[in-house]
Amino acid sequence: MANFHKSTMIAVRKDIEAALQSIGKKHNVEFKVGSIGYSANEAKIKLHMYAVQEDGEVYDPKADDFKNFAGLFGLKASDFGRSFTSGRKVYTICGLDRNARKYPVLAKDESGVVYKFETAMVTPLLK
Prior knowledge:
Elements: H1 6-27, E1 29-38, E2 43-51, H2 61-69, E3 83-86, E4 89-96, E5 105-108, E6 114-117, H3 119-125
Antiparallel strand pairs: 1-2, 3-4, 4-5, 5-6
């Protein structure tokens, strides 16, 4: 291999994720490969490791963050994971962007695409 290319990084990501699955099972953790930055001859990979709880659920830092800061945005900690309808689509709240003043609520649609919403728009739809 002479240089790194996007297609190479996609293949490497898949191989790394597959290799980390067995390590995760062995140590009761789950891995997620984050961003990959690369140049022609060097690559840097961000790797996240999450604890698997006793009930089998994987620790979700976004849920934790939401529960800690929801009140600052006029939401309840229990709103994480709740669904609302906007237009013809159903969205599920999946996080907060604490740095976004206008659109801090993150919600994904049924296909998994994440959108940003105003708190004032989401709050009445949750009732």
